[in-house]
Amino acid sequence: MRRMLWGALFFCNNSFAFAISLFPFAQVKTDIIVDKSGWEIDLNRAALNFTQSSLTNQNLYTNFSDSNLTGNSQIALQFFFNFYVNYYARRFVIFNSMVAEYGFTRIKQNDSSTITNKNLDKLFFSTDYTQRMWDFDLGFEYFEAGPYLKASYQTEFYPNPNIGRRHIVNYLFGVKIFDGRYIKNLYIDLFGEHDLNLNTQFNGLGIEIGLSLEYKLNSNLRWLYSMNFKQYLFNEETSRILPSYQLLLETRIEAKIFKSLSIAPLLRYYVLKAENINVAASNLILGVSLNFGKVLLPPRKPLKDYDFSH
Fold first, then answer.
1. Which end of the chain has fewer CB atoms within 10 angstroms, the N or the C?
2. How many Cβ atoms from other residues are within 10 Å of residue 78's Cβ?
3. Residue 263 in contact with residue 253, Cβ under 8 Å?
4. Using one digit for the tens of pLDDT, what is the confidence trace for 142-155?
5. What does pTM read for this prediction?
6. Which residues, 6 or more positions from 145, have their beta carbon under 8 angstroms from its beta carbon?
7. What three-state secondary structure class fits 273?
């Protein structure tokens, strides 16, 4: 494990050295300028979505108990909650997150009975140690970069009747770009994934790539985009599910309607492909999202000059 970690850090250093050579005009500072310091508490998003979903081939993937691929193609309500508690030090950042997602469809039948199907169900906790090693200034964009280690745990609010509640543990290491003007997060990592549910007994390894972008069109309008792709390179033979890859894309344009409250059209697309199934399953969601977000405790900005006149 130690050799793998040192190898990954060596790869990260060489990768950034190559990137620097491609942008000779970039200012790279190994002595990080700390624009943020201390704790940051961010209620990033509390949202209610009204959506129309369109699923394909979901019946072939029932053994995965993947909440993105359950339910039927119909109108649904979805709830999102993203909460972050981060700590900025001079040489490192600790990112802690809690993400909750739940969505359901409710169908009323002719006999006045109702059927409820969930189409999202996720409760996710993670902690992430990121080394602040490089500070880039490209003129039009600035960001920090460095290697990172991350551990996460994912479960669900309501267990699947056929499989039960999943308990997914991930550990990973890689390199990332973060806190840019437009690039909020860009990362690549190697991950290990384990499901403690005895009905899946999943153990696998793979590579993950992710991207988060934000562009402010004006003071009241911004475009947000996020992407996550996981390619599984190895699945243990005893695993009862054999994922090949996962892809999640989401984009929305938020328009502020009052202070921290905004409304946005939403597009979300999810794909899961298994090694032993010929076709992939997907979920395309179109909808309107009502969002609330607010930084509850901003990080401090250290004084650059001291005034001794008082």
1. C
2. 23
3. no
4. 999 999 999 999 99
5. 0.80
6. 16, 133, 134, 135, 136, 175, 176, 177, 178
7. strand
